[in-house]
């Protein structure tokens, strides 16, 4: 486990099952990654769209949870909508993802996330996430 993983929330069992891990941070935002393997392969030698979507979603939630924790806010997070755009086929390489909060209100958050492989300037997929931040269960 890297030093940056210690300061971010634990990953979900699904994320762990496909090998998603913290891979550092940039401007306070976690960068998540996974290696290409049979667990994330779709058609031969290419990433499965569901695995790519899972990485994007996990990166968005990791960022939001870290920011809420930093602000001392406690919420139950519920998806309103998540829209994924697949821009190019993922290859047999490490895939990275990083989110950016575009709006953080009292009750909802909007997040954009990008996934890339060898070239950060050529994303393979993007996601827009709208998340409801509900009161914690009592």
Distance between the termini: 32 Å
Number of β-strand runs? 6
**Spatial strand order of the main sheet:** 1-2-4-5-6-3
Mean pLDDT: 89
The helix-strand sequence is HHEEHEEEE
Please name the CATH architecture: Roll
Helix segment count?
3
Rg, Å, rounded: 15 Å
Largest sheet: 6 strands, antiparallel
Please give the CATH class. Answer: Alpha Beta
Structural class, by secondary structure, is alpha+beta
Low-confidence stretches: none
The coarse overall form would be elongated
Percent strand: 35-45%
Total domains: 1
Overall helicity: 10-25%
The CATH homologous superfamily name equals: Hotdog Thioesterase
CATH topology annotation: Thiol Ester Dehydrase, Chain A
Q: How would you describe this protein?
A:
- The protein is α+β, with helices and mostly antiparallel strands.
- The chain has one domain: Hotdog Thioesterase (Thiol Ester Dehydrase, Chain A, Roll).
- It has helices at residues 3-6, 13-17, 49-71, and strands at 21-26, 29-34, 76-86, 95-104, 108-116, 125-134.
- A 6-stranded antiparallel beta sheet has the order 1-2-4-5-6-3.
- It is elongated, with a radius of gyration of 15 Å.
- The mean pLDDT is 89.
């Amino acid at each position: 486990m890297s030093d940056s993983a210690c300061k971010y929330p634990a990953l979900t069992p699904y994320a762990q099952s496909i090998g998603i891990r913290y891979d550092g941070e940039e401007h306070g935002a976690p960068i998540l990654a996974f290696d290409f393997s049979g667990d994330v392969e779709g058609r031969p030698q290419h990433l499965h769209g569901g695995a790519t979507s899972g990485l994007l979603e996990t990166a968005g939630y990791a960022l939001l949870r870290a920011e809420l924790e930093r602000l001392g806010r406690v919420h139950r997070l519920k998806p309103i909508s998540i829209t994924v755009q697949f821009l190019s086929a993922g290859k047999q390489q490490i895939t990275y993802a990083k989110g950016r909060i575009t709006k953080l209100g009292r009750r909802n958050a909007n997040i954009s996330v990008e996934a890339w492989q060898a070239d950060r300037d050529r994303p393979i997929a993007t996601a827009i996430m709208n998340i409801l931040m509900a009161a914690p269960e009592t």
